[in-house]
Amino acid sequence: MSLARLYLYDIWRLAEKLIREFDSLPYEKFAEDANRIESAVMSLVIMREGWGWLPRNMREELVPIEWSAITGKWDLEAGRHVGVDRKKLWETIVQGLPELSAKAEELLKRRVE
User: Fold this and answer.
1) What is the pLDDT of residue 85?
2) Which of 16, 39, 85, 89 is most buried by a 10 A CB count?
3) Which residues of 79-110 are buried (b: 16+ CB within 10 A; e: fewer)?
């Protein structure tokens, strides 16, 4: 399996995990739970890293994600991510990731056949 396929698989797997974990969670409950937010951000940071290693043609077939808005940046002093837009993070998980996941799964299947 190529590295690009491994990264794509990881992106798909993490998207599915986030969808299962947060899809039925109302925004209000999500927004008040700092641990869940940090967990989601860390998963998305891993996805963002994998995204960066995908070939351009693969990225173009997937749903574009506004990574910096949903992952923020790491603040060494605070020891956490800052600048995370909680609403955009939640919307990305419940609205954007299902489509991204479906397209990633399709790409994985297509490249096998």
Assistant:
1) 84
2) 89
3) eebeebeeeebbebbbebbbebbebbeebeee
